[in-house]
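TASK: fixed-backbone design
INPUT:
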């Protein structure tokens, strides 16, 4: 027997109400803020991600599903959504449209991680990107939208963490400060961090190994080494958030696991669950579009994991609204009845009424039990007597009341009431 690959999960019918609920709320919030949907391929040229996410990141070095196709193209299953959206933005000349271009997506994301609760090798993200505007107003709006989305789902137990990781101008100086700070501490660092120290010292701040976490405690703070532009941007963002009454905490060790971020980074953390259980996160990536070959174009985005949201909804005791149940179940006994059942079902469906037809030769009792279990409001019963009379029996499954009706009348009785 085959099983789903490690780190993947089937999303069974019983879970779908949550997913539908989350998607509906996501679409509503995107409409409120003027975002348009985009879908991009599940795989891209591997170089797109190496270039944008960064060579020194875990995502690229350890987690990317990278493969050659039969024509020797080096491809990767997308390990995140932003790079693909930026690639599409450039490929389709969206830079010529009014800016910022506001786009949202639902995407399956692939990362070869160690599976655990809320951490999969294939997970699903809802994300949004606002490309073509540098103002911190947009940072505040994206953050407000992300929080508004979680609240619209009924979630309340989370905090917003904020940091600024500077830009091309001020970062080199800060990175040197980090290297100087960490140099005498190398014996306490993990092997990965020792290797990262030369190439990508920012990554040391969010290493989850205890030795590295302890070392990061006293590390210099990025927000204290920002250039004037980054400093003013961060200050303005804080002012906007305060004006919007959005509570935040500054987390000096928040750097996010992708290299393309500049200035603002943020994460939404559930109150319980630790630093590896983020509900969502995002930030500015003002250099990414130009690194991918476009002109200098500031941008900011946000993404959240659908599986994490389901987990948090369940933890907070929030139930998704029930999915629509079929209106009618048609039970039939005997061969002639089967034909009438199929025709009646077609008629009703054409009138927009949802129908399940019993198939097979089970007893009426068994068929009505099934009508109950699928949650149908009505059962239409067709047996020999009904065939003889040219009528059908209509049973209200809640009250068990039954009436014999002309099949032509069913649409009127069951259809939308004016
Ligand atoms: P990231 O692209 O790493 O910032 O991830 C964005 C969001 O996706 C995170 O905040 C999580 O909610 C979710 N996420 C990231 N990695 C995983 C994973 N391996 N399994 C499930 N959800 C994930």
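OUTPUT:
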């Amino acid at each position: 027997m085959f099983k789903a690959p490690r780190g993947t999960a089937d999303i069974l019918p019983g879970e779908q109400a949550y997913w539908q609920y989350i998607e509906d709320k996501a679409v509503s919030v995107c409409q409120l803020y003027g975002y348009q949907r985009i879908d991009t391929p599940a795989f891209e040229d591997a170089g797109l991600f190496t270039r944008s996410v960064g060579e020194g990141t875990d995502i690229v070095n350890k987690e990317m599903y990278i493969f050659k196709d039969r024509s020797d193209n080096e491809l990767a299953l997308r390990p995140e959504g932003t790079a693909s959206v930026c690639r599409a933005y450039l490929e389709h000349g969206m830079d010529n449209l009014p800016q910022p271009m506001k786009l949202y997506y639902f995407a399956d994301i692939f990362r070869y991680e160690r599976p655990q609760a809320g951490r999969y090798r294939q997970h699903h993200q809802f994300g949004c990107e606002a490309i073509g505007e540098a103002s911190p107003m947009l940072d505040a709006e994206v953050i407000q939208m992300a929080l508004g989305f979680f609240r619209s789902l009924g979630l309340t137990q989370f905090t917003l963490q904020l940091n600024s990781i500077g830009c091309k101008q001020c970062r080199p100086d800060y990175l040197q400060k980090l290297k100087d700070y960490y140099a005498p501490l190398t014996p306490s660092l993990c092997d990965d961090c020792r290797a990262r120290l030369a190439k990508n010292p920012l990554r040391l701040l969010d290493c989850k190994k205890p030795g590295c976490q302890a070392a990061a405690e006293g590390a210099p703070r990025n927000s204290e080494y920002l250039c004037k532009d980054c400093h003013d941007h961060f200050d303005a963002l804080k002012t906007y958030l305060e004006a919007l009454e959005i509570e935040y905490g500054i987390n000096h060790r928040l750097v996010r696991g992708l290299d393309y971020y500049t200035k603002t980074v943020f994460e939404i953390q559930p109150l319980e669950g630790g630093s590896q259980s983020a509900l969502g996160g995002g930030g500015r990536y003002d250099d990414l579009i130009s690194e991918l070959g476009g002109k200098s174009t500031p941008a900011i985005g946000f993404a959240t994991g659908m599986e994490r949201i389901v987990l948090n909804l369940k933890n907070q005791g929030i139930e998704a609204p029930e999915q629509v149940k079929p209106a009618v179940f048609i039970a039939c006994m005997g061969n002639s009845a089967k034909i009438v059942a199929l025709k009646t079902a077609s008629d009703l469906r054409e009138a927009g009424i949802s129908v399940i037809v019993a198939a097979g030769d089970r007893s009426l009792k068994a068929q009505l039990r099934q009508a109950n279990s699928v949650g149908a409001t009505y059962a239409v019963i067709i047996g020999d007597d009904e065939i003889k009379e040219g009528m059908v029996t209509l049973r209200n499954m809640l009250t068990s009341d039954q009436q014999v009706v002309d099949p032509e009348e069913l649409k009127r009785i069951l259809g939308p009431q004016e």
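COMMENT: The mean pLDDT is 94.
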